Amino acid sequence: MAFPKKKLQGLVAATITPMTEDGEINFSVIGQYVDYLVKEQGVKNIFVNGTTGEGLSLSVSERRQVAEEWVTKGKDKLDQVIIHVGALSLKESQELAQHAAEIGADGIAVIAPFFLKPWTKDILINFLKEVAAAAPALPFYYYHIPALTGVKIRAEELLDGILDKIPTFQGLKFSDTDLLDFGQCVDQNRQQQFAFLFGVDEQLLSALVMGATGAVGSFVSRDLSTLLSN
Questions:
Q1: What confidence tens digit (pLDDT) does each residue in 88-113 have?
Q2: Could you give the 3-state DSSP secondary structure of residue 175?
């Protein structure tokens, strides 16, 4: 497994997907976006096609194109480009995972499927395992956001023994306000050296005290959205 030399940590920008007035993706500004993050914000890690990027509102083709553009424009400028590949369809999620590996992304992340929801840890793990196996050379991150998925399986429960099922698992994007669950994730997995990335900007200070190793934040992206609209 060709994992990155640097652990994913610190601030990770949750990127928006820039659009034109007629609803098409505005690929022409992504290069400017990269330069803004690196030069103006000092941010060199990004999370693409997640909630802030409205990935699940894009077609598979659009998601592939967006991922390609970020990897291409970020080459030799960004440290890590993590692509969210979660989808309701297992096959679509696997396709996006394979594509992320092919274009040279640095990792993939997946949310729980949220229409026909997994109701047990084992069912969710099996879904995640199948997606991770589609890109076996890439670090795999679970994107925990129960307020949007409706999947209430605690992250602490999910992480118990996860490396036995998903050997490429490298960490968690925790976008929930349950700090007890988050703290237990950290406390019970200190020996694993997982990345614990917190995703609720308003609670970040508390999460850092509890052991968060980084944050996937949208404040930087909101600033950029204003900049690009001017």
A1: 999 999 999 999 999 999 999 999 99
A2: coil
Sign of CA dihedral 177, 94, 222, 43: positive
- How many H helices and E strands in the chain? 10, 8
Model pLDDT for residues 202-220, shown as the tens digit of each residue: 999 999 999 999 999 876 5
Token pair belonging to 66: 């967006």
Q: Could you tell me the end-to-end alpha-carbon distance of the chain, in angstroms, rounded to an integer? A: 43
Catalogue the active-site residues. Answer: 143, 173
Contact of 112 with 176, CB cutoff 8 Å: no
What six digits make up the tokens of 35? 């330069």
Cα–Cα distance for residue pair 128/133, rounded to 1 Å: 9
Cα distance between residue 37 and residue 57, in whole Å: 24
For the chain, the residue count is: 230
**Domains in the chain: boundaries:** 10-229
Topology adopted by domain 10-229: TIM Barrel (3.20.20)
* Number of Cβ within a 10 Å radius of residue 122: 11
Q: Give the largest CA-CA distance in the chain.
A: 50
Residue 164 tokens, joined: 């036995």
Q: Residues 9, 216, 31, 104: what is their CA dihedral angle, to the nearest 10 degrees?
A: 60
Strands 140-144 and 10-14: unpaired
pLDDT at site 227: 44
Cα gap 187→86, rounded to integer Å? 27
CA distance 30 to 117: 34
